[in-house]
């Protein structure tokens, strides 16, 4: 059997340790090694807890935290079984057979369809990440740009040890970091007060909420719809159509997050009902009218 569990444990452990060493080397002596290890662990596991003010980090260290969050992404780790399956298939077939085309075969072997469908699935997952990240980044950058200049929060200090010389966040830095953090449900923010300065900014809150759902509860729904859309707009005579339909029918052979059409619709309806119920309870149980104005954001978070 393929050592999937051991690979994931080794990957997470080594990434946490390497991230802690790099953070400690960049921020010492202000940051202790235990704090660096704690932040690295919470970044890779998307827990979002921090024992040190991340806004006091240098830009390089903030980029490192974002990279650690991405390296621990559950939506990317789930592609590991697909990659391992493809590796096993390629080891079992002769080198000359790897260059075959669907039109070259009278009878298509199972391994051939599995390999081509698996490769296509990896491309679809990669494209999904790129599209969601790009859309979320644009939303957050626009939302940040329309925020009044004096209300954008602080993203760092000219001297990390001196908090009397702060500088405001930049649209690109704010959007890039929070896009990665929100999609991976990490909860990290380079603004000390988190998203409090943007409490009345609907564009930023909508972007964060969309990214949180796209990387979590709606990931199986959107991933199946992306594969279905690719199948719909692919020519019937194209070999890719065969692989896409195979993915829609036998997707659980590759990845556990693509459900049947009925299961996908049920999951979507259940999530919407739960979000509405949570929003209603949050609004009715609070005396703060601002919570009711942003009920949809409170429900998602």
From TrEMBL:
Gene Ontology process terms (BP): metal ion transport
Membrane topology classification: Multi-pass membrane protein
GO cellular component: plasma membrane
Cellular localization per UniProt: Membrane
InterPro entries: Cat_transpt, TrkH_K-transport
Pfam annotation, one family: TrkH
Transmembrane segments: 67-88, 120-146, 203-223
Keywords: Ion transport, Membrane, Transmembrane, Transmembrane helix, Transport
GO molecular function, one term: monoatomic cation transmembrane transporter activity
The protein's name: Cation transporter
Organism encoding this protein: Prymnesium polylepis
């Amino acid at each position: 059997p393929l050592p999937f569990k051991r690979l994931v444990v080794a990957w997470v452990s080594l990434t946490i340790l390497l991230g802690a060493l790099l953070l400690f080397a960049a921020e010492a002596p202000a940051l202790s090694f235990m704090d660096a290890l704690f932040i690295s662990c919470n970044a890779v596991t998307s827990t979002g807890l921090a024992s040190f003010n991340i806004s006091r980090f240098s830009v390089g260290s903030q980029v490192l935290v974002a990279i650690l969050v991405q390296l621990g992404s559950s939506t990317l780790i789930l592609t590991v079984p697909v990659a391992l399956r493809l590796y096993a298939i390629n080891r079992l077939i002769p080198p000359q057979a790897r260059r075959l085309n669907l039109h070259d075969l009278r009878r298509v072997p199972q391994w051939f369809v599995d390999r081509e469908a698996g490769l296509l699935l990896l491309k679809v997952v990669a494209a999904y990440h790129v599209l969601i990240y790009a859309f979320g980044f644009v939303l957050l950058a626009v939302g940040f740009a329309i925020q009044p200049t004096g209300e954008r929060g602080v993203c760092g200090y000219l001297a990390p040890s001196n908090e009397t010389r702060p500088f405001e966040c930049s649209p690109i830095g704010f959007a890039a970091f929070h896009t990665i953090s929100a999609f991976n449900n990490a909860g990290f923010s380079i603004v000390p007060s988190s998203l409090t300065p943007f409490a009345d900014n609907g564009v930023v809150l909508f972007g964060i909420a969309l990214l949180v759902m796209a990387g979590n509860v709606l990931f199986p729904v959107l991933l199946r719809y992306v594969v279905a859309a690719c199948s719909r707009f692919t020519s019937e005579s194209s070999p890719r159509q065969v692989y896409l339909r195979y993915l829609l029918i036998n997707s659980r052979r590759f990845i556990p997050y693509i459900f049947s059409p009925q299961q996908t619709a049920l999951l979507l309806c259940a999530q919407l009902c739960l979000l509405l119920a949570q929003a209603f309870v949050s609004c009715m149980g609070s005396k703060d009218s601002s919570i009711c104005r942003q009920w949809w954001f409170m429900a998602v978070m």
